[in-house]
Design goal:
heterodimer, A: about 375 residues, four-stranded antiparallel β-sheet, B: about 260 residues, 8 helices, about 70% helix
């Protein structure tokens, strides 16, 4: 019968005896019902014991990992979170199985969460076993990471706000199940963008060569004219004769120009084109190619000076990429920006009690792993 | 199109030395010492190439596929030189030289003159330890793959002592590699939270890093079971390294990579 069954039967008999003694009624109607419940409990306990025992075996753990790996790989292959029509267009006959197996939202479906839950149970079971402390610490670490993920998923808040210069905002667009679904949430304070700065790398010049096909220009190649002074295309030669940059500086929008002598291979004479930066593609005489000269100056760093205001206080902080700022229980991350005539700064706002739990889990896991590795070497 | 000026002199020196080292390992037994000496010289030239690029660019040269391949060659040679100290398997030197050479040749065709402008998210103190832990881990896992292939493909390698040595070497490489990719994963999680405000985004690269980690985790759970020693373990090591290769190179060809957070320039 096993220990769980014995415990349950003993508990039942004790309760029966106590009840009988107190009420003076012997063998009432609930006895057969209680016997049935008891039998079901015993069966469930045995089944649970069987399942738990199996889950603690390394072989079943490995099978679980392989199954999880297949599921994650499928999620990496299928574009997530689109509507059914998208899958029918892009995945053809595979659309049906993709939708049937919920591969279109793998990481937020019940199957996947069930697998992670199973893994969590298994890890807790291993932690409770009588094994070396480093082994238990390692498994505890992964369990704590999963717990942190659970907390982030169900308690944490992640949202996004766009701020224009000198304007305040106090609402964020909330992200749910990996997508910004349209739900807004108010913050208990306001945030104002006082200043936005972009530090750029020195400007570079690129020649973009396009081929006309299918009614539109398709990028054929990108060339750095400092590296190649002559560029051979199908029917024409381009020669970069000169190149200059605005002496005033190259930071925001350098005025870059180039004279390009363009002649056909047959030698029909040379013509000179002057192409300004950021112009539209220029159609070449052969009718097939166009060239665009563009300055490329990606940002090295960008930052927003934010002012946080609530009823009692005001605080001003610079938020930079990789350097979030904490205020009122929320963290503010510099996530994006838009330049041009209507500039704005994209700020991700997050309140996630799960992250410290995840970090603690990672530390437990690494400590256990190091300890086991060193222990083996001894 | 090859951009010759993207390479420095030391690129060609290390490439040539890796080739010579591989040839020396392939030749008669007596030349293996020469092979090892050449491998050390190639690794030194590779180191100078990386340090030189670092100084010239003013940032760690781990941004583009070209740079990462040069670093992968360096990591494979480094792991071999380390393993050589702890295990008497000098014939792996030829495998190390061949792998480093293959990565350098691949890099030669992937030279990127546009390198040298790290996006803001990569300008973080976590960048170097994250990449280093992963690539040295990949180097170690490459040796486990090489051992597994030798064990599976060459029947002579399955002799009692030699086969046991190979499997022991493979097991050690996987345990070391797993430790390193776990460190890399943990660093990546902490860094992603600071850079993208999400410690896990289910990005294709992250997903495949997790797949790789899970496959090796499965290996570590099965390695001591009676039916999983020998061939089965070797097959699992092969599957693990295929996952590594896909994480490193294959992910860039997935339909989900458009707009993903991790993508080589």
């Amino acid at each position: 019968m096993g220990r769980p069954a014995l415990i349950v039967i003993l508990a039942f008999l004790t309760l029966w005896a106590v009840q009988g003694l107190r009420s003076g009624i012997s063998a009432p109607w609930w006895i057969p019902a209680a016997l049935l419940v008891c039998a079901a409990a015993i069966a469930a306990a045995r089944a649970m014991g069987f399942v738990l025992r199996d889950l603690l075996r390394p072989g079943y753990g490995a099978a679980l990992f392989v199954f999880l790996a297949i599921w994650v790989a499928a999620g990496a292959w299928v574009v997530q979170g689109k509507d059914a029509a998208y899958y029918h267009v892009h995945y053809g006959i595979l659309a049906r199985p993709i939708l049937a197996l919920t591969l279109d939202r793998v990481f937020y479906c019940g199957w996947f969460r069930g697998l992670l839950l199973l893994m969590g149970f298994s890890l807790v079971g291993v932690v409770l076993q009588r094994r070396s402390w480093s082994f238990r610490l390692l498994h505890l670490g992964v369990a704590v990471v999963l717990l942190g993920g659970l907390v982030s998923q169900f308690i944490g808040v992640r949202g996004y706000m766009e701020l224009r210069p000198h304007r305040a905002g106090d609402r964020i667009l909330v992200q749910e199940n990996g997508h910004f679904g349209g739900r807004m949430q108010a913050l208990p304070f306001s945030v104002t963008l006082n200043e936005f700065r972009i530090d750029r790398y020195p400007a570079r010049v690129q020649l973009k060569v396009f081929r006309r096909g299918g009614g539109r220009f398709r990028l054929q190649r990108i060339v750095d004219p400092r590296r190649e002074s002559r560029l051979k295309l199908d029917q024409v030669f381009l020669e970069v004769a000169a190149m200059g940059q605005d002496a005033a500086g190259q930071k925001e929008s350098p005025r870059i120009w180039a004279d390009m002598r363009l002649r056909k291979q047959a030698g029909n004479g040379a013509r000179t084109f002057r192409v300004e930066a950021d112009t539209r593609p220029v159609l070449l005489p052969d009718g097939n190619h166009a060239v665009e000269l563009k300055s490329v100056s990606p940002p090295r760093e960008y930052a927003s000076l934010l002012t946080f205001r609530d009823k009692t206080r005001t605080r001003e902080e610079w938020v930079r990429v990789n350097h979030p700022v904490r205020y009122g229980g929320y963290r503010f991350f510099q996530s994006g920006y838009r330049g041009g005539n209507d500039p704005l700064s994209g700020i991700t706002v997050k309140k996630d009690p799960g992250f410290p739990v995840v970090v603690a889990g990672l530390l437990f896991f690494l400590a256990g792993l190091f300890s086991m590795s060193l222990g083996r070497r001894k | 199109m090859i951009h010759w000026h993207a390479h420095s002199l030391f690129f060609f020196i290390s490439l040539g030395l890796y080739a010579l080292s591989g040839l020396a390992f392939l030749a008669v037994r007596r030349t293996r010492r020469w092979g090892e000496a050449l491998l050390v010289l190639a690794w030194l030239a590779n180191t100078i190439l990386i340090v030189g690029a670092w100084v010239r660019l003013g940032q760690p040269p781990f941004q583009t596929l070209y740079q990462s391949l040069v670093f992968f060659s360096w990591a494979v040679a480094l792991v071999y030189l380390f393993l050589r100290l702890v295990a008497p398997l000098s014939r792996m030197g030829g495998v190390a030289a061949a792998c480093a050479l293959a990565a350098m040749v691949f890099a030669f065709f992937k030279a990127d003159p546009g390198a040298g402008m790290l996006p803001p998210a990569l300008r973080s103190p976590w960048f170097v330890p994250h990449v280093m832990a992963y690539f040295i881990g990949y180097g170690a896992l490459f040796f486990s793959f090489a051992c597994a292939l030798m064990f599976l493909v060459m029947p002579g390698m399955r002799e009692k002592t030699l086969g046991a040595d190979l499997l022991r070497f493979m097991d050690g490489a996987i345990r070391g590699g797993f430790l390193l990719i776990s460190i890399g994963l943990a660093i990546g999680i902490v860094w992603a939270e600071a850079a993208w405000a999400a410690y896990w985004s289910w990005d294709p690269k992250e997903n495949w890093a997790l797949v790789t980690w899970l496959v090796y985790l499965a290996y570590l759970h099965l390695r001591n079971r009676p039916h999983w020693r020998g061939k089965a373990a070797a097959w699992l090591a092969v599957a693990g390294f295929l996952a590594v290769l896909f994480t490193y190179l294959g992910v860039n060809y997935l339909p989900t990579i458009t707009g993903a957070l991790h993508a080589y320039q």
